[in-house]
Amino acid sequence: MKVKVLLAVLSGLLLLPGDARLFAQSRPAGDASLDERVGAFLARHRGSWRDMNVPEADGRTLYELIVKHKYTRALEIGTSTGHSAIWIAWALSKTGGRLITLEIDERRYRTALANFEEAGLADYIDARLGDAHQIVPELPGPFDFVFSDADKDWYKNYLIAVLPKLTVGGCFTAHNVSSRRQPGIREFLEYLNGLTNLETTIDTSSGAGLSISYKTAGQ
């Protein structure tokens, strides 16, 4: 299995949050008020995300993946202050799903909780404070969507821990994989290359690099 580089051009993602047309094609009837609230939240905070949060382009990609495949059981490893979780939970509000997100830093965790409340998405998020090294192996699953954006030198270990709990057809994504010089990234990508039950592409929309791996068979 070869890892392919995917240069994503998602024309439906070029709209600004708050635009009345934003993701209208995937929005179920009856939740327009939530869309407006989340869109307004993202518009207010555009350009202010720090603390290793994802770029907006990658948040939109995560949203699209979940909505397209109707994922409902999501795990995020590395909340930071919540930008990616907002996009993931917004998508899960369409599919009837829920997100478990993990953060080790209490300051970032508390800020994320406030952001989830402000965005109106707290009901879709189970935010947990603690060490993902310990928590991830203990989570029972199953999951159909996973986003890894914590310590890069542990990416391979997170995948090993989560893969048996990932459903066939489910998706494991990892952020910042374009920087192979960063400790852990090369090892992680080489491990992905050796797996026969994952089909992987790398989305470079933001330049950070987002690996997108679909599970094609059981363990």
Give the topology.
Layout: E1 4-6, H1 32-45, H2 56-69, E2 73-77, H3 83-95, E3 98-103, H4 106-119, E4 125-129, H5 132-138, E5 143-148, H6 155-162, E6 166-175, H7 185-193, E7 198-203, E8 210-215
Parallel strand pairs: 1-7, 2-3, 2-5, 3-4, 5-6
Antiparallel strand pairs: 6-8, 7-8
Using brief descriptors, characterize the structure shown.
219 residues, alpha/beta
Give an overview in words.
The chain has 219 residues and is of the alpha/beta class. It has a single domain, classed as 3-Layer(aba) Sandwich (Rossmann fold). An 8-stranded mixed beta sheet has the order 1-7-8-6-5-2-3-4, sandwiched between helices. A hairpin with a 6-residue loop joins β7 and β8. The two termini are 16 Å apart. The N terminus is likely disordered.
Largest sheet: 8 strands, mixed
Mind telling me the C-alpha Rg?
A: 16 Å
Strand order of the largest sheet: 1-7-8-6-5-2-3-4
Could you give me the name of the CATH homologous superfamily? Vaccinia Virus protein VP39
Order of helices and strands: EHHEHEHEHEHEHEE
Strand content: 15-25%
Please count the helical segments.
7
Broad shape? globular
How many structural domains does the protein architecture include? Answer: 1
End-to-end C-alpha gap:
16 Å
- Would you tell me the structural class of the helices and strands? alpha/beta
Q: What's the CATH topology label?
A: Rossmann fold
Average pLDDT figure? 88
